Amino acid sequence: MTKRLQRSLASAAVIAVALVASFALGGLAACGGTDEDVDPQAVLAAASAKMKEIKGFHFVYEVHKPESAKPSAGLEIARMIGDINAAGDMKSTVDATYGGLPVTVGIVVLGDTYYIQDPISQKWTSVAAADSPVGQLSLSAGTIRILDRITDVSYEGQEDKGGVKTHHITGRVADEEVKAIAGLVDLGVTESFPTDIWIGVEDSLVYEVDIAGAATTNEDSKVWRSIVLSNLDTHVDVEAPQ
User: Fold this and answer.
1) Phi/psi zone of residue 177: left (φ > 0), alpha (ψ -120 to 50 degrees), beta?
2) Closest C-alpha to 78, from 65, 88, 69, 87
3) Which residues are CB-neighbours of 151 under 8 A, at least 6 positions away?
4) Quick one: how far is CA 228 from the chain centroid?
5) Which residues is 107 bridged to in the sheet?
6) pLDDT band at residue 189, thresholds of 50, 70 and 90?
7) Secondary structure E strands in 69-150
8) Could you tell me the fold of the domain covering 3-225?
9) pLDDT tens across 206-228, in order?
10) CA–CA separation, 237 vs 235, rounded Å?
11) Using an 8 Å Cβ cutoff, are 107 and 118 in contact?
């Protein structure tokens, strides 16, 4: 596996997890009452506090492209499924295309090390976070910064997500805030990202985050990303692959 592909995959992992952790932490608040009684800022504050206390969660990150979007010549992430714990350790599987061919790649993040599985040989290669262009994953400083700076917040009412009654909140996140944690955002492509967050009415946990807009110059303007969380507050043991 080339270093370029290794870095692309590591960057994809950071984007997904950073967005999951960061936007997730920025969510919820007041429970019950009528829609008119709900303060979206209070919901977000409560969600931020609650999400910082959970043991971990399962996530499904997907990139949704319009049929008119042109295929990428390089690495193109379609879906990432994984588990992450409170320490920031993660194990996941990435479905993507590389040079137009479908590939499935394993990614494990453990402490300061990224482990990336070659889709052909199935062998694992370790890359030190300190030596990678994306740095080390964080569930605190970078993510809280984004959550604290969501603007144009609006409450859209209560909706069902996976059988859970949730608060639906919308807002916008500046490109520089996303870049601070994701790293691969091309500043100026999209000045801010429309964002939808669904937060549990009873438990103040984040269940889904949708982010609209192209993050790089190569993406279609109608691209949007969804991050669905489940098994919330569940610890997952992550071990280095053999």
Assistant:
1) alpha
2) 65
3) 171, 172, 173, 174, 192
4) 9
5) 92, 116
6) confident
7) 75-85, 90-98, 101-110, 113-117, 124-128
8) outer membrane lipoprotein receptor (LolB), chain A (2.50.20)
9) 898 888 888 777 787 888 888 88
10) 7
11) no
